[in-house]
Amino acid sequence: MSQSVHPAICYVNALESLRKLVSRLGDTNRSEWLISSARAQQDQAVFWLPRNKLLVAEYPIEGMSLIRELTGLNGEVAVVSRYNNSSFAEAVIRDSSVIEHIRRYIGNAKSIEMFAHTNTESFFRFADHLASVLSIDVLFPEASRGLDLRDQIDRKSGLRELFREICGVDGVCRIPQGVEVEDVEEAALSVLNLTNQGRQAIVKADIGEASIGLEIFDCHTSFEVIVEKISASPYYGSDPIVVEELITGDNIRFPSIELHVPGNGSTPELLHICDMLFEGRTNLKGNVTSKDLYKSKWSLPFVDAALKIASDIQSKGYIGHFGIDAVTDRHNNIYLLDLNSRRTGSSHVHDFGVSFWGRNYIDKICIGNYDFSGLPSSFTSNALFDLLSGLTADPRKSACGVVPAELSGLEFGHFGSLIFAPDRAKFNNLVAAVKERLRIFADNSLVE
Hints:
By secondary structure, the protein is of the alpha/beta class. Helices cover 35% and strands 23% of the residues. The chain is built from 14 helices and 18 strands. The strands form three sheets. It has a nine-stranded mixed sheet, with helices on both faces. Strands 3-2-1-4-5 form a five-stranded parallel sheet, with helices on one face. Strands 7-10-8-9 form a four-stranded antiparallel sheet, covered by helices on one side. Strand 4, helix 6 and strand 5 form a beta-alpha-beta unit. Helix 4 (88-94) runs parallel beside helix 6 (121-134) and helix 9 (184-195) packs across helix 10. It is globular and about 65 Å long. The protein starts with 7 loop residues before the first strand and ends with a helix.
């Protein structure tokens, strides 16, 4: 996203698709707990380009004044008042204070540009409402009103079908061995087909995200137990169930790629490649991008496949961001796991880099985000900045430092940080330094 020539409004709906998934639980309290514990994702929009923007968000963004002071970012935030269990879009449309905030923000402008985390029907419904009540033109640099394609490729089965159609099944870049099936018993038989070959299997909810709806099986699991576990999960619904080989072994890594598909017909743009950082099998802690990733043996075929997919979906009318998560094996084969037809968990990392070091930031600096935990619940953002004193740094003045971010998670004892350093080793050192501060704090708290 480049700097807008029109007032920019960002519709911060990172939780919208997650809410759709967790609603399948049938347990309102549990669903709302999952939403609340993930709501810090909305804070990533603070770092999106354009730098000057108005964020329309579901919840207040914790520590906004501290982030502004440290970085000089000056985006405004309009928080929507919730009305019972109404959707985000319904709440925004009904909240006259948000509409008035937007009216003041855009001034006499006759056109605005609107951006979203995920392009959805509710996003366009809100945009149409603004156009009507404010008598303005609403432009969409990163969105197409045709959502069928976006929704199709955002599914696990959608990526598998798209890859087979565009890239075939052979080559260094591939999809894991697997199937998309319609019922639980078929899924269980597919799991056994893999585990009987000595492989592990992973079962995925077709619309799953944030590692929700994953089940992993090995050769010691019986057919009956597999059926029982899949049947007990509420996340599959009536969608296809995806069963794949779980890629494991020594020296595997989890790269991700993000591209932007422009609406003017120009060539899709590679934004960045990053490493996804995990603790355990499915606990994603962050992402990091650095120049060395582009020299990896799997990098070129990964980029080539992503660009082929980008060109194909562009020809079908897709506009906007999309990312692909993958895993590499020790032979440098790369397996595509998931396509996210929206902004991803590393979009703000890229925009942070562009904002402070320019489009070629990858030649100058290593940047990533990392999620930390272990603080007492409701630890304040002021206390966190004090705790990290000496590690935090203004990216305008330093080549190495931590920018505390996604602080809305402090209510649950965790927070995110953007971390920048001259190279990957120094990035890792900063991650370790933050963890050490947290460990010392926890030890001192126990003594007290």
